[in-house]
Design a protein that fits this description.
Layout: E1 3-7, E2 10-13, E3 18-26, E4 33-39, E5 46-51, E6 58-60, E7 68-73, E8 78-83, E9 92-99, H1 106-110, E10 117-118, E11 122-127
Parallel strand pairs: 2-11
Antiparallel strand pairs: 1-3, 3-8, 4-5, 4-9, 5-6, 7-8, 9-10, 9-11
Amino acid sequence: QVQLVESGGGLVQTGGSLRLSCAASEGTLSTYGLGWFRRAPGKEREFVAAMDWSGITSYYSDSVKGRFTISRDNAKNTVSLQMNSLKPEDTAVYYCAANPAYSNGRFILQTESRYTSWGQGAQVTVSS
C-alpha cells in the first residue's frame, strides 16, 4: 500500500559519484524494509542494497560493498542510494523497492519477490 517515485540517475565518468532518491507519494515507509535493485542491459535484475524496517540492519551485494550506501529518512518518507567510485559495470537501471516484512533477515531483504512496491526505475550510465 505504498507508491514510490524515483529521482536522480544520469551519466557519470568512472570514479564519479551519483545519488538516487526514492520518495513515497502514498503511504508511509516507516514500517517497510527498503531496497535497491538494478538491471543491466541483457541481464536479470539483481540485488544491490537493503535496509530493514527499523533502520538498524543493512546489506550490500559484494559488487557494491564499500562503494554504495543506503540510507532512509522516515521524516521525509524517502530512501536514498549514495553511489561512489562508480565503475562501468554499475551501468544499469536502478529500482527502489519496499518490503512489508518485519524482519532483518538477509534472505528476506535480498529476495526480489519479497518486495511489493517498486519505483519506476532510474538510468545510471558510467562511462570509461
